[in-house]
Design goal:
The chain has about 325 residues and is α+β, with helices and mostly antiparallel strands. The protein has two domains: about 200 residues, Sandwich (Jelly Rolls), CATH 2.60.120; about 100 residues, Homeodomain-like (Arc Repressor Mutant, subunit A). About 40% of the residues lie in helices and about 20% in strands. The chain is built from eleven helices and twelve strands. Strands 1-2-3-4-11-6-9-12 form an eight-stranded mixed beta sheet. Strands 5-10-7-8 form a four-stranded antiparallel beta sheet, with no helix packed on it. α1 links the parallel β1 and β2.
Length: about 325
């Protein structure tokens, strides 16, 4: 493969050739945000469920794309204040939020907050709306039908939207972004393998919770309080006080809506942050342990291995190996 085919290409919007996509090149573009009312509907009718929903490609500003057999990976920026009314996508989507949360709603359900370093799945043809209050930076994966059929033969979990839970999915998404940014020929092989593993994780965990329910406002406040304060010591009474409810009520309803306890959720957030620090910084493991709220490195390492399946040192080695 020629050297020019391995480098990042700065191109005008609309100037990307089919040959470049077929070769799997990374392409930088500057396509601007569009709304459902102005976007082309080249894909034809949206779905059989609701013909009033337009069928859209990715909105926002595309930073770079990469074509992999069965998938298209897109790095995307969504500007603050962008609102996308009800629409559908022809293909299924995996989305990994790099920075800036956004909300997504389906039908008459309340909105779901898509937080940074969380991997979500959206089936093709699923009507939804999005709001980007503060702006978001995401890695989007368009999953073509042929790739999706590989897992649909064995699982029905990918028939509805949901968060793909588990530390494996978070690690895979971080590895995906790392390989995506490499821009070399070897990255193509790594990308395809990671994407197939992500689909397998999705088949195990996507939509594993009940269909999107209307979450009480006080419970959203409690979860947001956890999201903002998970790195410092917290008590159930403090979280319940922030939400204005009794701690017993908080404990019961949190488990009911999120299929996890408050403590498990807090531990998961700390380990997710630790994964980010271990793989993206040179901080000492002891320092990461203290930063993420663990009493010592031994406690941190044991919890990390139990959640992730690897020691922090091994996780760092695998994350930084090229």
């Amino acid at each position: 493969m020629a050297e020019s085919q391995l480098s990042w290409s700065i191109l005008r919007p609309g100037s990307i050739s089919k040959g470049q996509y077929a070769r799997g090149e990374i392409v930088n573009t500057t396509r601007k945000a569009t709304s459902p009312s102005s976007h082309s509907t080249a894909h034809g009718p949206a779905t059989a469920h609701d013909d009033s929903c337009p069928c859209l490609d990715t909105s926002g500003t595309v930073v770079a794309t990469r074509r992999v057999p069965g998938f298209q990976v897109i790095e995307n920026h969504y500007p603050s204040g962008l609102e996308l009314t009800r629409h559908v996508h022809e293909h299924a989507y995996l989305s990994f939020v790099l920075e800036g949360p956004y909300s997504e709603s389906y039908g008459n359900s309340s909105s779901v907050v898509c937080q940074p370093r969380v991997l979500r799945y959206l089936p093709g043809g699923q009507a939804h709306a999005n709001t980007f209050d503060a702006g978001s930076h995401c890695l989007i994966v368009e999953v073509e039908n042929e790739a999706l059929k590989r897992v649909e033969e064995h699982s029905k979990a990918l028939e509805r939207p949901g968060e793909i839970q588990g530390m494996a999915s978070t690690w895979l998404a971080q590895r995906l972004y790392h390989e995506f940014r490499q821009g070399d020929e070897l990255a193509l092989v790594s990308l395809e393998g990671i994407l197939l593993e992500m689909l397998a994780e999705g088949a195990r965990h996507a939509g594993s919770t009940s269909p999107v329910a209307v979450i009480p406002r006080w419970l959203r406040i409690a979860r947001e309080y956890l999201e903002s304060n998970f790195l410092r010591p917290l008590s159930l009474a403090e979280i319940a006080g922030a939400a204005g409810v009794h701690r017993v009520h908080l404990s019961r309803e949190f488990r009911r809506y999120f299929s996890t306890t408050v403590g498990e959720y807090l531990r998961r957030k700390r380990i997710e942050h630790a994964c980010h620090l271990v793989s993206n910084t040179n901080m000492a493991l002891a320092e990461i342990a203290m930063t993420c709220g663990f009493s010592d490195q031994s406690h941190f390492s044991a919890t990390f291995r139990r959640q992730v399946g690897l020691t922090p040192a091994r996780f760092r080695q695998m994350s930084q190996t090229r």
